[in-house]
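User: Quick one: structure for sequence A, then sequence B.

Assistant: Sequence A:
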Amino acid sequence: MNKFSILLLSGVLASTLAACSNSRSDNDTITYPVTHQGEIVDTYFDHKVADPYRWLEDDRSEETAAWVKSQNTLTFNYLEQIPYREQLKERLSTLWNYEKVGAPFKEGKYTYFYKNDGLQNQYVVYRQKGEGAAEVFLDPNTFSEDGTTSLASLSFSKNGSIAAYAISEGGSDWRKIIIIDVETKKVLEAPLIDVKFSGISWFGNNGFYYSSYDKPKGSELSAKTDQHKLYYHELGTAQKEDKVIFGATPEQKHRYVGGQVTEDDRYLLISGAISTSGNRLFIKDLTKKDAPLVTVLEHTDSDTYVIENEGSKLFLVTNLNAPNKKIVTVDAANPTSENWVDFIAETDNVLTASTGGGYFFTEYMVDAISKVYQYDYQGKMVREIALPGVGSASSLSGKKDETTLYYSFTNYKTPSTIFSFDVKNAKTEVYRKSGAKFDSDAYVSEQVFYSSKDGTKVPMIITYKKGIERNGKNPTILYGYGGFNLSLTPRFSVTRAVWLEQGGIYAVANLRGGGEYGKKWHKAGTQLHKQNVFDDFIGAGEFLINKNYTSSDYLAVNGGSNGGLLVGAVMTQRPDLMKVALPAVGVLDMLRYHTFTAGAGWAYDYGTAEQSEEMFNYLQGYSPVHNVKTGVKYPATLVTTGDHDDRVVPAHSFKFAAELQAKQAGSAPTMIRIETNAGHGAGTPVSKTIEQYADIYGFTLFNMGFTQLPN
C-alpha cells in the first residue's frame, strides 16, 4: 500500500521573490529572477522526493503573482531584442486577414453559419431565412473588451425557437450557459453557472441536459474535480432546482459524465467514464414516465456510444473486441453486448462514423489519411466518396431529413475548402473555397516511414517549400502528441503557413499513444509503455537529421498539453538532439498531475505515483520536472502556458521553468511566456494567437542563429 506522506513543510512562503538585481546569472547575457526553494519532501514507497517549487502550485498567491510578473518581464525583454519579431507578427496578421466562413446548418426557420471577417478575435454566428440577407445572431466579440470571453458551444431546442449557448471567460473550462429566445435574442432566465466538461442536449423545447461537478473548495483553477454529474434543466426554473439524473450516488461516481438525447426524442443516452479512455453506457426511454435506467455496458473496457436509432433499434460505434472500431446494432429492450450484431464490420483501418441525410458515413484513417464511404440503413455500402486529394476530410453529418450535407477538406499545405454533398446522387461541389492568400502549389507535403528504437514503423508527414536544398541547415519544427487515442491528421493552419514561407520545414510524427492505428497503437504508448512515445519522437528527429532535412543546430521540437510532456521528456533525455524546445501547456510533473482539477482522469494513459512502486519509479524516470539535471546543457527553451489554464494547471510549466533556470549549464536561454487571462488554448483571441506565434517563431529562429528572416 502506498505510504505517501509529506515529511516536511516549512518556509515555502517565508520569503517573496527577490528583485532581478539580486538574482543569479547563468551566462553572460541572461540574469534570471531568483525562484525561492522550499523544503517540502514527499515520500513514495520509502523513496524521498524533494519538491522545492511546490509553492508555485498556489496560483493565486501574491508570491506566485510576483514570480509570474518577473518571469514575463524577463521573457518579453528578451523577445523584444529579436529584430524580426514585428515582421513575423505583420506577416501572421496579413495572412490571417481573410474572410472565413463555416458550413451552414439549419435550425427551425433559419440557416446559421459562423464567420470571421479576418482578424476578429472570435467567430460571429450569423443567420438568414431562405435567400434573405444574413444578420448577426451572436457576436462573441462583444462578450468582453479584450476578446477573451469566447463562445464555447451553441445548441437549439428541437423546433429551433430557443437557443442555449455556453461561454468561457479567460479560457477557463468552467462555463456559463445563457438561454435566449431565437426571434428576439432576449435572455429568458438567469444563466446557469459552474458548468464544466458539458454538452447541451435538448429534450424537445422544454429543457436540456448538461454536466458539471460540485464547485470545488479552494482554488477554482487547480482544485481537484472528481465526481461528474448529469443534470436536467427545465426552462423557467432556477438552477438550484435542476434534477441530478446521474452521478448522485457512489455507484454512479464517474469523472466524466455526458448525456445525449436521440434526434427523435425517444432515448436519453448516458456515458460514464472514470478516465479519458473507456466508458459505461446507459439508456433511458423518455417516452415512458419513470422508465428505469437500463445498462448497456457495465464495464469501462471499451469506448462505445450510440450513433443513431431507428425506433428501438440502436446503432452503436464500439471498439469492444474491435480495436479499430465497428458499428453494431441491438434492440433497446435487450441492449447488452451479448446481443450485439455486426452492422459495419471492423477493418484494418481506424473507423470514425457519422450520420446524416438518412445514411451512415464511415471515415477510415489509412496511415492518417482520410478515406470516406457511404452506407444505407441496411449496412450496404453505397459508394466511396471521391475526395479532392490526400488529406483530411471532416465528418459528413446532419439531421436525418437533410438532402445536402457539407464537409471540409484540407492538408498541411492546402487551406480548408468546404464541399457540399448531395446524399442521393453523390454530386459534390465546392461550396466555399478558402480565401487564404497562400500558394499551396509552391510546397510539398510527403509522407515517410521511419523505424523507432524497437523497430516499429512510424509514419511522419514532412511539409516544405519546393526546391529546398537538403543541406542540414533548414530550420525545422518537429511536432508530436502521442497520447489519449488522439490522431494527428493533415490540417492547414495560418501559423504553419508562415513558418513554411520562411523556408522552414514542418514535420508531424504520428507517434504511438495516438489513435492513428487503433486501440493497440494507443495502448502501446500508455503507462509502462510511455517511453515508446518518446522513442518514436526521438526517432523522428534522428530521421530528419540523417536524411539531411535539417541538423541538431536547426531542429526545434514542439507539442502542447500531452505533447508538452512529450517535449519535456525528450529534451531532458536527449538535450543534444535539438537546438530549441517549445513545450506548451504541458503535463510536466508526473508525480502530482492527478492531484489537480480533472487530472486523475488521465491515469489510463499515465498511471499514478500511488498506483504501485513500479509505476512510481517509471513516472519519476521520465517526469520532466524531476529529470532536469545540474550541469547539463539544455536547448534554448520557451515554455508557454496560460495563467487561467484549469485543465493542465500552469504550476506544471512554472516548476519546469524554475528547474531549468536553476540547473541550465549552457548559455541557451530558458524562458517561460505566461499568457494572462488565457487558458488551455480553446477560445484564445486571434490577436493573442498572432502575438504568441510571432514570439515562438522569433525565439526559434533567433536561437538557430538567424539575424534576419530566412526568406
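Sequence B:
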Amino acid sequence: MTYQNFTLDIDADGIALVTWDMPGKSMNVISIEAMAEIAAIVERVAANPAIKGAVIASAKDTFSGGADLKMLEGLLREFHVSRRADPEAAALRLFEESRKLSLIYRRLETCGKPFVAAIHGTCLGGALELSLACHGRVMADDDKTKIGLPEVKVGIFPGAGGTQRVMRLTDPQSGLMMLLQGQELKAAKAKAMGLVHVTAPRAEIVETARKLLRDGQVPAKQPWDRPDFKQPGGKIYSPAGMQFWPAANAIYRRETADNYPGARAIMMACYEGLQMPMDIALRIESRYFAHVMQTPEAACMIRSLFVSMQDLNKGARRPAGPAPSSLKRIGVIGAGFMGAGIANVSAKAGIEVVLIDRDQEAADKGLAHIARQADDAIAKGRMKPADKDALLARVTASADYGKLADVDLVVEAVFEDRAIKKAVTEAVEAVIPPGCIFASNTSTLPITSLAANSARPDQFIGIHFFSPVEKMMLVEIIMGEKTGEEALARAMDFVKLIRKTPIVVNDARGFFANRCVLAYVREGFLMLDEGISATMVERCAAMAGMPVGPLSLSDEVGLDLSWKILQATKKDLGDGAVDPAQERILSALVVERGRQGRKNAQGFYDYPAAKGAKKQLWPGLVDILGAPRPAEAFDIGELKQRFLVAQALEAARTVEEGVVTDPREADVGSILGFGFAPYTGGTLSYIDAMGARAFVALCDKLAAKYGPRFAPTALLKEMADKRETFYGRFAPTARAA
C-alpha cells in the first residue's frame, strides 16, 4: 500500500520505519489526509505479524509544526453555519469531528505494537501529541530541536490527548506550566520532565529508536494502561494534591483574570481527567476542546494569531510589481537604544550594518549595546562566543556618513525633533546611492511632513519599530502621500528578513499603534485624576487583559518622551488636542520633579538599584493627585471596559480615516504592538465579537458619563444600523497577495 504523506519500510528485524514527508510542503502538518494515513498505518502495523514495532520519523528538516489550524477554522465555519438550523446536531458534529485525532492516537497506543517517535527540529502541538501517544520517544539533543504544546497561545488547548498524557508523565507543577504557558522545551528539559526517554545526536535518533525496539526496551502498553500505574505527584485527593491544586487555581486566576477559555479548559480537563481512566479522561478532554472551539475567543484568536499573522508574514500586503530585493547592507542613523536594537536584529539576520551617530563615542555606545545583548544571550546558552564575534563583525560604528555610499536601505532612528530629522535626511541623501530607500523610525510625526525634507519623497517611507526592538515582533510600515511601491516592497522585504511581522498603514499623526496606545495611557491618567488609586488603575488594566498597566507602560516608554510628544502635539494641533489633566500630571512628574520613568529609575514607580528588587509605586503620587477615593466608589467592570473601548474606538477611527485598510493588520498589530487583550483577537475583533450595535450602545453609555472621547464614529453607527462587521465590510481576503 502506498501513501501520499508517509512511507513505510520494514527491515530484517521486523522494525517498521514510518517516514513523514508531505510533498510540496517545507514542513509536515497534520491535515485530514495525514490523519487518515496515520490511522491506516497503525492498522497495518497492528495487523502484520512480521512487524515487531514501528519508528515514526520525519524526512524534512523538522518533525512537524502540528495541526493545520486552517483545518480547524474551516470546521468552525461549518459549525457556525449548521447551528443556525440545528444547534444540537451542529455541536455533536463538532465534538465528533474535533476528537478524531484523539481517537487515532488512542488506537495507536492500544494497538498492541510498540511505537517510538524519533524527534528532530520542531515538534509542536498535534505532532507532539502523536509522539506522546507513542510508547517511546527519542529526541535530538541539538539547539534546533524543541517540543511544545502552544495551542493556548491561539485560544484553544491540546485536544488530542496532550493534557492527559503530559500530566501522567511529569509532575503536576511542571506539566501545568508547560500547558498553560505553551512552553517550548529543549531536549535536556524534556528528558528531565520525563516527556522523552532518550536523547541522541541528530544523525543517530532513528537508529537509537530502532535499537530500543530491537532490544525489547519499549513495552507495547503505556504506563497509564497498566494496573500498577501511579500518577507523578500523587492523586488529586491526597494531602499533596490538596496543597497543589487550590494554589494552582489561584495562580491561574491571577495570571489570566479568567479571560481565556482555553486556559480554563486546561485546568478543568487536567483536574477532572486525572481522576479517571484514560479513555474517560480523553473523552473529558474532547468535550472541553469542543466547548472551547465554540467560544468567540477561540475563533478570534485562531483567526488573528494564526491565520492572519501567517498571511501578513507571507507578504499579503506586499505589492506584486517590484521584484524581491536582496538587502546586503543597510545604514542605521542614531546609535541610541532604539537604533542599536535595529542594528542588532539586522546584523543577526546576516545584513551588514553601518551604525551612524553624531560622533565616534556615541556610535561606539550603540555597538557596546549589541555586545551586551550578545553576552546576555551567551550566558543563557542562546548564542556561542563565535556567533558574537561574527555578529559584531557585521556592524560598523562610525560618525562618517560617507560609509553609507553603498547601502540598500537607511533607517533613521534619531530624536523626535523635526529639525534634527531634517538635518539627518539631508546629510544621508547627500551620500546614499540613487536606488537606496530612506526610512524614518518616527513614532508619531507624520511621514508626509518628514518626506518634505527629502529630494526623493517616492523613496521615503516610515518603518516604525517597537521597544525593545529585540523582543517586539511588530513593525509598522507607514506610507507617505508620495511613497512609491518600490519603497514599500523594499521595506517589507527588510522586515521579513529580520523575522518581524509587518503591518502597512497610511500616514497620520501617531499612525495606528501609537494612537491606540496613547488612548490607553490617557485613560489611565484620567482615572488617576478621577481619584482612582494607581494600584487600582494598574490592576484593572491587567484584569481587562492588558499585559502592562498604563502607568508602567508610561514609565517604560519614558515620561519625558510622553511630555515631548504632548508638547509637539500642542504645537502642531493646538491646545485642544491634549487633555489638560494628563498634561498637568506629566508636568508635575517630569518638569517639576524630574521623574522620567524607568530610564532614571523614577516615574510612577520607584526602581530600586538592588538586583532582583521589585519596583514599587512612588509614594509621592499622593502629593500630586491627592488621596484616592475608596475602591468601592468605582465599578471594576466599567473600568475594564473603558480601557478596551478607548483603544478599540481609536482603532475604528483609523479605519474610518483610511489609516488602516485591512482589519487583519489592526488586530495583529494591536496584539503584537501594544498587547491589546489577546483573548479578544484584537481591537476590531473585539468590536465584531460584541456586535456593532452593542458596541455603539456601550460607547454612548460611556460618552454620557465620561465625555465625547467615547462618542462612536459615524462609521460605527452606520455599521450598527446595517448589522455589519469589520471583517465583513472590509473583506481582507479579497486583497491578499
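Residues 6-294 form a domain with the 2-enoyl-CoA Hydratase; Chain A, domain 1 fold (CATH 3.90.226.10). The mean pLDDT is 94.

User: Thanks, that's what I needed.
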